[in-house]
Amino acid sequence: MKKIILAVAVFGFISATSCKNEGSNGIEAGAEQALEDAGQQAVDMEEQAANIKSAEQEAIEVPEFSNEEVQNFANDYAKYFEELLAATKSKNTEKTVELTQQGIEWTKKANEITKGMNEQDTQKWTEWTNRLRDLVNGND
Questions:
Q1: Which domain holds residue 32?
Q2: How far apart are CA 33 and CA 4, in angstroms?
Q3: Are residues 87 and 112 in the same domain?
Q4: 37 and 14, same structural domain?
Q5: pTM of the model
Q6: Of 60, 88, 105, which one is at a domain's C-terminal end?
Q7: Along the chain (140 residues), what's the average pLDDT of each consecutive run of 10 residues?
Q8: Which residues contact 136 (CB under 8 A, 6 or more apart)?
């Protein structure tokens, strides 16, 4: 009788411990899956950020103009837009307003510069400045 009770107790103990392990394995597997998912989401977000930065850099990249004066102005204009974009993204309203006011002067200078451009340079300038404006306005 003692052997039967002992056998049943051992069987019960083994059954109970094996059930607990299965449950904890399920929890561990779920936790591992959650960690993998979180890691993948982090990687995806990093890739998206890199793609956005790449698109911004591509939009700001100054095309080559045939006139040196136009090229120099375009380089300075790109720096201005980089500042404006940074201020807009950081939600620095004061800096954004200041740069927007400077934009009036930049527009006047651009109008003077574009008067002397040939057709190809005018086309490049228009496409490039449209990309810059879209980028600052969030229409990328």
A1: 1-60
A2: 43
A3: yes
A4: yes
A5: 0.57
A6: 60
A7: 60 55 58 64 52 60 92 93 88 90 92 91 92 77
A8: 81, 84, 85, 88
